[in-house]
Write a structure and sequence with these properties.
Blueprint lengths: L3 E6 L2 E10 L7 H10 L8 E8 L2 H6 L14 H8 L6 H19 L4 E9 L6 E4 L3 H7 L6 E3 L9 H7 L3 E9 L3 H17 L7 H14 L6 E9 L6 E3 L8 E2 L4 E5 L2 E4 L4 E4 L9 E8 L2 H12 L12 E5 L4 E5 H4 L4 H6 L2 E5 L4 E6 H4 L12
Parallel strand pairs: 2-3, 2-4, 4-7, 5-6, 6-8
Antiparallel strand pairs: 1-3, 5-7, 8-14, 9-11, 10-13, 11-12, 13-14, 15-16, 16-18, 17-18
Helix pairs in contact: 1-7, 7-8
Length: 381
């Protein structure tokens, strides 16, 4: 297995597309799809550049999610700095540094606009879907694809690769194409990659050619092409004996009181009428299942308006709220104050929280760091 699946540079100026496949070693559909799509692309038909990068090479060889640690949970600035200064590194720490080298090299030698895509599959049956950090550039580009779009995962997972790239300000999407061993996962990745090449202007092909891929994803996603938000995560640790009950799949509706899973000899029941998301049907993983809800279109439009006028500047007028880092869009909020603000208010303004002490939490805003100007001249913007 090679680190660089394919690297192609066009003869004309254009976007720089970076695809990651196999960040989790048991998720090979993205790697296979990238090999298939890119093998036939010639430089003279490409605008810009394409990089396709394999993630966790040893885990891919062993068909395991990871060897020592989950590579897609290590990408925080503090953790990266710690790894850089360590004398002895485990497998995933070595992989992180190699991927970071390629990432920094691409950003240094190319001028953009940059697009980053991380291709995944899930242990449960699922519709194809997109996950994004909640920046408007991510929202706007994601809407081009006829699949569900899930917001808020950065609030529940610490250290995904795409969250790190979002802190740098670039457009980045996660695409989950289906279940690990389902051949349709490869087919859905093929459709997604080809549509990316079309929407970014990297490849110019007939509209009918791209319509076939669009209709494929639309059919596979059961026309559920709207926004959802994560409202709950059931976390598990290595000592837990967690097991999902059979038959659940992502985006399935569940009723309040439904028996979902069993953990340490106790049954877990749904507390809401909602939808279940990414139920865990594999041994490795720290996320048992998520709960998601629909986001109303009015709320999405309102949040766009509020962000564009930067009304969040008024938040620091309230006692207990101050800038931790204004340039990077990080607020420090006293937990006693935070309870008077409904979470949807912060979400509408683009802030997602992560508690850092017993008394305070930090709220992170992807909007303030997003390099929106880089994408304003793109055809989809």
């Amino acid at each position: 297995m090679k680190r660089i699946i394919k690297e192609i540079h066009g003869e004309e100026k254009g976007p720089t597309l970076v695809f990651f496949g196999g960040i989790h070693g048991n998720e090979k559909a993205g790697v296979i799809a990238l090999q298939e799509v890119l093998k036939n692309i010639k430089p003279d038909e490409l605008n810009g550049s394409i990089y396709a990068i394999s993630g966790n090479l040893k885990a891919l060889e062993k068909n395991q999610r990871y060897i020592n640690q989950d590579l897609n949970r290590l990408w925080t600035r503090d953790n990266i700095n710690t790894i850089k200064n360590k004398n002895t590194l485990n497998n995933e720490e070595k992989e992180l540094l190699k991927l970071l080298y390629f990432l920094e090299r691409i950003l240094k030698i190319k001028s953009g606009p940059f697009y980053f895509f991380d291709l995944h599959t899930t242990s449960s049956k699922t519709l194809p879907f997109i996950t994004i950090n909640d920046a408007l550039i991510n929202r706007k580009f994601s809407k081009l694809f006829p699949v569900p779009i899930v917001l808020g995962i950065e609030e529940y997972l610490n250290g995904p690769l795409l969250s790190y790239i979002n802190t740098l300000g670039y457009l980045s999407l996660g695409f989950e194409s289906g279940q690990h061993v389902d051949v349709r996962s490869i087919e859905n990745n093929l459709a997604f990659i080809n549509l990316v090449l079309h929407y970014t202007g990297a490849i110019n092909k007939a509209e009918a050619y791209n319509l076939e891929y669009y209709n494929q994803l639309k059919e596979e996603s059961k026309s559920l092409n709207r926004f959802f938000e994560i409202t709950h995560l059931h976390s598990i640790n290595k000592k837990d004996s967690f097991k999902m009950y059979e038959g659940f799949k992502s985006f399935q509706k569940i009723n309040k009181g439904a028996k979902i899973a069993r953990n340490n000899k106790e049954d877990i029941y749904s507390k809401h009428d909602a939808r279940i998301f990414m139920p865990l049907y594999q041994k490795k993983g720290a996320e048992g299942f998520f709960i998601i809800r629909d986001i109303k279109p009015f709320y999405l439009k309102m949040s766009i308006f509020l962000r564009r006028i930067k009304i969040d500047n008024l938040l620091v007028l309230f006692p207990g709220i101050s800038w931790q880092n204004k340039r990077e869009g990080v607020l420090k909020v006293n937990l006693k104050v935070a309870k008077f603000f409904a979470k949807p208010i912060f979400h509408a303004l683009g802030y997602r929280n992560r508690q850092v002490t017993k008394t305070h939490m930090n709220l992170y805003n992807r909007e303030r760091v997003a390099k929106t100007r880089m994408y304003k001249e793109e055809s989809w913007y």
